[in-house]
Amino acid sequence: MPARDTEPFPRAVLDVLGAAADRPVFEHGTRVVTGAELLDMVARIANGLRGKGLGPGDGVALLLGVTAEAFATILAAHAVGARVAGVRPGLTDAQVEHLLSLDIKLVLRDADLADLLASSPAPLRCDGRPGDIARLIHTSGSTGAPKACAQTYASMTDAWTARPAAWPPAIRELAARLDRYLVFGSLSSQVMFEYAVLTLTAGGTVVVADNPADAITRLKATARVITVPGLAKLVASQKRDPADLSTLRALLVSGSPLTPDRHREALDTLGPVLFHGYGQTETGMISMATPDDPPGTVGRPPVDVELRDGELFVRTPGQACGYWGNPEESAEVFVDGWVRTRDLGRFDAFGYLRLTGRARDVVIVNANLHYIGPIEQAIAEHPDVAEAYVVAVPDDETGEAVHAFVVPQADRVPGLGELQALVTGRLGAACAPVRVTAISEPPVAPSGKPDKRQLTA
């Protein structure tokens, strides 16, 4: 394990901001924020948070937009040693209410930041205790209540993002291309936040894109995160009506695997700009393919990886230690210092990792993972449904989508709109089926269990 700095996270990031001084680090429209100005925001907000009684081990929930102030607040909350839970957009009211009930001492919204920024700045110190939980990163919430991956201050300090000496080769190559990195959606996104920290460490500028659709051209971006469906749309658009993407140097593809054909097509159309990452909320980055790596792979992992009956078990410097308040599932996934990914893969003769499938029943919609079991349970509660079975199907818009197979009750097949409304109200719109098919009974595998592979086919 690497030697830690004298102070824990976010000391390395604060040092980066201090060294940046008058260099632009954050840009939002015509507003430009320097490293010194952002560091001053962190100091003021941290002092304000301490004034509200927030300290090591206390829970704080952040319902914030994508602004320099929001980024500063995340760093400030870590500086005081709090347990930080970001609440991303798109959750149902019930899911947000659940998150805010998880031993939270303080809830912050954008309107609260002006009061904190009015505090006088105090010398910045980082009070996080190594064994304390530094942040909770929530999964999709498709089980009803979002699971929270718990990452300690020791783990965040050991992560490589703000430590150039620890950068794996693929990250070192990527860092050189992060002159102007787009952020959008939510800074509570692990991927969005981590690459923002990497950008600042690499000497680049974080650029806010209120509308990411044409932001590469409009804001002269050099890098952005994109999902596999988003990449397919961009490739198709460039073939049909090419935009000026001359500034683009890195597309950070995440959320789901790229097929070799799609990977090649994107490289042929967009040029050598694809960095195809593989990671999980539980682990952070596991591996990354650079533009020179074979299409269809996710590169050579710079972390410990074991294949156990084809399933990937990994150890990363910044991995989570478990699921907050969920010891049963923690014991299943976090095993003797390893994280069970529940993904299947293999290594080729040259050491490149290829993902081959999943060992869990999930659907990945817009790069967010949703468990199928709760979706089936919700559909089965409809009075006209005797049994419900859900499979993931390819979708050009979202990567994957939900296809529901139902055994009707008394020969009445529920309408698609009815099932969509039912599931959306319970689990959110991403879990709602895009198609429904009535069946008399499900196909059965030799084990006697329903055979979803036949349904998918």
Would you write up a description of this structure?
It is a single chain. This protein is of the alpha/beta class and 457 residues long. It folds into three domains: 11-159, 3-Layer(aba) Sandwich (Rossmann fold), CATH 3.40.50.12780; 180-360, 3-Layer(aba) Sandwich (Rossmann fold), CATH 3.40.50.12780; 363-456, 2-Layer Sandwich (GMP Synthetase, Chain A, domain 3). It has 15 helices and 24 strands. It has helices spanning 11-20, 35-51, 68-79, 93-99, 113-117, 153-158, 169-175, 190-201, 215-218, 228-240, 260-270, 327-333, 372-380, 416-427, 452-456, and strands at residues 24-28, 31-34, 59-63, 83-86, 106-109, 133-138, 148-152, 180-183, 205-208, 223-227, 250-254, 274-280, 284-289, 304-308, 311-315, 322-323, 334-335, 338-347, 353-358, 362-365, 368-371, 385-395, 399-408, 433-438. The strands form six sheets. The protein has a six-stranded mixed sheet. Strands 14, 15, 17, 18 and 19 form a five-stranded antiparallel sheet that branches.
The global form is globular
What is the CATH T-level topology of the largest domain?
A: Rossmann fold
Q: Can you tell me the number of structural domains?
A: 3
* Strand fraction: 25-35%
Q: Main sheet, how many strands, which sense, barrel?
A: 6 strands, mixed
The total of beta strands comes to 24
Q: Give the C-level CATH assignment of the largest domain.
A: Alpha Beta
**Average pLDDT, all residues:** 92
CATH structural architecture of the largest domain = 3-Layer(aba) Sandwich
Give the neighbour order of strands across the main sheet: 5-3-4-6-7-16
| Oligomer status | single chain
| Number of DSSP helical runs | 15
**Unreliable runs, pLDDT <50, ≥5 residues?**
1-5
Please tell me how large the radius of gyration is.
22 Å
Structural class: alpha/beta
EC number: 6.2.1.3
Organism: Lentzea flaviverrucosa
GO molecular function: long-chain fatty acid-CoA ligase activity
Pfam families: AMP-binding, AMP-binding_C
